[in-house]
Amino acid sequence: MIGDGNGWLDGPNGARLWGKYGAAGVFLLAGSRVLLQHRAEWTANGGTWALPGGARDSHETVEEAALREAVEECSIDTDRVHVFHSLVTAGPFESGWSYTTVLARTVDGEPIPTEADEESLELRWVELENIRELPLLPAFERSLETILWHCSNHD
C-alpha cells in the first residue's frame, strides 16, 4: 500500500528510525558531482546535507523506494538515471530496520534538472571532493567512505 512505510521505529540506544520497512536514499552521480539535499529545519537532522531518500513502503524494492523519494523530493526524471548498485549503510538493527544507499548515475554523465520540495532548503550538485565541506547528516557522513569506495569499484 502506498505510504504504509511512513512511521517511526525504536532503534539502538534510544534512536528513532524513520520507516516501518526501512529506508533508502539515492547517491546520484553526474560525472564527478553528486546530488545532495540540504534538509529543511523541521525534518530529522534538519539543516544538514544528505541524500534524497526516505521510508520504504512494504511493496517496494530499495531501488524503487530511493527513486520514488528522489522524484518526490527533487522532481528528477528517472528515465535519465541508471542504478548500478545498492548497499546497506546502516543496520540492520534488532527491529529489522536498515538504510540502503542506492548508487546511480545520470545516463549522460551530466546533472539533470531538479526542483526542491518542502523537505529541502536547497538541492545542489556537489563535487565529490567537496562533500565534506558541508555539515553532513551524521549517518551519511559515517557511510561516505564505503559509498565512495563502491562507486569507484562499480563502473
Automatic annotation (TrEMBL):
Keywords: Hydrolase. Residues 19-148 form the Nudix hydrolase domain. InterPro entries: NUDIX_hydrolase-like_dom_sf, NUDIX_hydrolase_dom. It holds the Pfam family NUDIX. Its cofactor is Mg(2+). It comes from the Bacteria. GO terms for molecular function: hydrolase activity. Its EC number is 3.6.-.-. SUPFAM superfamilies: Nudix. This is NUDIX hydrolase. It comes from Corynebacterium breve.
